[in-house]
Amino acid sequence: MTIGQKIRELREKTGMLQRELAYELKVGDAYLSKIESNQKNLKKEHLTTISKLFKYSYSELETLWLANKVYDLIKDEKKAIEVLKVAEQEIKYRKTL
Amino acid sequence: MTIGQKIRELREKTGMLQRELAYELKVGDAYLSKIESNQKNLKKEHLTTISKLFKYSYSELETLWLANKVYDLIKDEKKAIEVLKVAEQEIKYRKTL
DNA sequence: TACATTTGACCAAATTAAGTCAAGTCAAAT
DNA sequence: ATTTGACTTGACTTAATTTGGTCAAATGTA
User: Fold this and answer.
1) Is there contact between B33 and strand C, defined as CB under 7 Å from any strand atom?
2) pLDDT over 90 for what percent of chain B?
3) Which is the most buried residue in A9, A26, A53, B70, by most CB within 10 A?
């Protein structure tokens, strides 16, 4: 599940049009279309609006949003999974400091 | 192990000074100091030079370099580990498409 | 002292973010 | 068969941020 998919899911479940949600977010509908297909990242602030609008956990949206950023960084790498493991170890290690 | 630590390790093992390695990389020694302490990221191209200079696996350097970028992105997040899990699932999922 | 390294403040250039607009697609209704 | 409405796409723009550094001063350290 990506942040884009989640937003689309929330929107469609309430029968809202892209145009309508875009209006709430104060962006154009073309931009929202790209957000839902993960071609663009939305601002973190928009997560707040979405969270309130659909009464959906902000924290979960934030996790998906961050995961999407990580994904963007390594999606084209063959070693993507290994990279994540190394990053994970680093996080765990530095937590203990 | 971070990319900065690895570079320092390689440099020190050969008794090289920051100034000397910096010269090879055509950067200032202050900048190299920051690279070794992960305050700055080096260019991917520099990995090639380092790999050749110390005869150390390019692929491993690249993994550390990428992991460092991922780390930078989520280091301040409480949910860092969870974010990595979500990103990992996304990578695995999209690979099967 | 002198050499190696680190740090903070700063900078220009390159990149990314955050969009827009117009044209195009696609399905359903007319 | 054409219109309509929802959505998508590509090309573009502008502003903000990041990258990739530098220099001078401070801090170890032998």
Assistant:
1) yes
2) 80
3) B70
Pick among 1.10.260.40, 3.40.50.720, 2.102.10.10, 3.40.50.300: CATH of A3-95: 1.10.260.40
Encoded tokens for A37: 């297909």
Does A88 contact chain B (CB < 8 Å)? yes
Query: Would you call A72 an interface residue with chain B, using a CB distance cutoff of 8 Å?
Result: no
Domain ranges of chain B: 3-72
**pLDDT > 90 fraction of chain A, expressed in percent and rounded:** 71
Q: Answer yes or no: CATH 3.40.50.300 is held by domain B3-72.
A: no
Q: Using CA atoms, how far apart are residues B88 and B91, in angstroms rounded to an integer?
A: 5
Report pTM: 0.91
Q: Is A69 on the interface with B (CB under 8 A)?
A: yes
Q: How far apart are CA A58 and CA A51, in angstroms?
A: 5
What is the C-alpha separation between A79 and A15, in angstroms, rounded?
Answer: 40
Chain C footprint positions (protein CB, under 7 Å): 4-8, 17-23
